[in-house]
Specification:
Blueprint: E1 7-11, H1 17-31, H2 38-43, H3 46-59, E2 65-71, E3 75-84, E4 94-101, H4 110-124, E5 130-135, H5 141-146, E6 150-159, E7 162-171, H6 174-179
Parallel strand pairs: 4-5
Antiparallel strand pairs: 1-2, 2-3, 3-4, 5-7, 6-7
């Protein structure tokens, strides 16, 4: 009989930087192909990303959190980060900064597990609402809608000589998700 895959969601550490970088680069190349300039995706370097993540994980303060999804037999297959909202223009206290799962491990509940653990971390810090900004054409937007997020704002940002429309998804009361057993559809 086959055993189901076991994923452990745990805090990230500087030792995880290379694995996080691998997930980051591979996820960007998969999710953003055709949405951002190809040259940006081609120039991405797991080595450079590993240096950045190592520095971030070494100096992060208690207000921000990085979690990894560690799959038995495969290692780190996803990660996410969160903290206090970076902008006060919206009424949401917390923000999901990143959430990536390797394409070959998507649609197995790993992204959902990461997202709800990030929400738990925000709640534990007294941040009871959250937003996430995504590229408006990113197919992941449907995931956030399925997780109970609702479109609350939009903006355009100029990056890499390209105007990128973005959409914010928001959760007004994360505590309700906890009382529903982390199921936004129940």
């Amino acid at each position: 009989m086959l055993e189901p895959p076991i994923v452990r969601i745990r805090p990230g550490s500087p030792a995880d930087a290379e694995a996080i970088a691998r997930v980051y680069v591979k996820s960007w190349r998969s999710a953003y192909a055709g949405l951002i300039p190809n040259a940006v995706l081609i120039r991405m370097s797991a080595t450079a990303q590993a240096r950045e993540w190592s520095q971030q994980l070494s100096r992060r303060n208690r207000a921000d959190s990085v979690l990894v999804a560690d799959l038995r037999g495969a290692g780190i297959v996803g990660f996410g980060s969160c903290g206090a909202a970076r902008s006060s223009l919206l009424p949401h206290a917390g923000e999901i900064f990143t959430l990536y799962v390797l394409p070959e491990h998507q649609e197995r509940g790993i992204g959902r597990a990461l997202l709800f653990r990030l929400f738990d971390g925000l709640i534990d810090r007294g941040l009871d609402s959250a937003i996430i900004w995504v590229l408006s054409q990113n197919p992941a937007r449907f995931f956030y809608e399925a997780m109970g997020g609702r479109r609350i704002a939009g903006k355009e940002e100029r990056l890499w000589n390209t105007t990128l429309p973005q959409t914010a998804y928001g959760w007004d009361d994360l505590r309700l998700l906890r009382t529903q057993g982390s199921d936004p559809t129940s």
